[in-house]
Q: What sequence folds into this?
């Protein structure tokens, strides 16, 4: 009876990432994925990402069909997760995608 052997360094698949996440990175990315796990936040994030110059909070209420306080609540969650930056311009607050956070999350997804 013959047995089949394979080299010990042969893998069926390449590694997904260069290295395992440390505790801090895992906590940060868990917050990012939790924030994007809400359908309203995901739509809100995509609206902001589709506008290169950012979006005024006042312009996001209509497309989402949600009240201003609800939109503000979701914007705060996206900001706290590090997904969007905010900047006050006069009376309004403008939101833009925080590219580094998105790139880090995309790196894990696009293996």
A:
């Amino acid at each position: 009876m013959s047995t089949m052997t394979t080299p010990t360094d042969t893998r069926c698949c390449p590694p997904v990432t260069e290295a395992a996440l440390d505790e801090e990175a895992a906590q940060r990315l868990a917050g990012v994925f939790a924030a994007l796990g809400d359908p309203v936040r995901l739509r809100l994030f995509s609206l902001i990402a589709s506008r290169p110059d950012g979006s005024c909070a006042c312009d996001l209420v209509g497309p989402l069909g949600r009240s201003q306080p609800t939109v503000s609540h979701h914007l705060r969650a996206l900001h706290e997760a590090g997904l969007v930056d905010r900047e006050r311009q006069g009376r309004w607050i403008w939101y833009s995608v925080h590219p580094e956070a998105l790139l880090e999350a995309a790196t894990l997804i696009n293996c």
In short: The mean pLDDT is 84. The helical segments are 23-36, 39-49, 61-64, 68-80, 99-109.
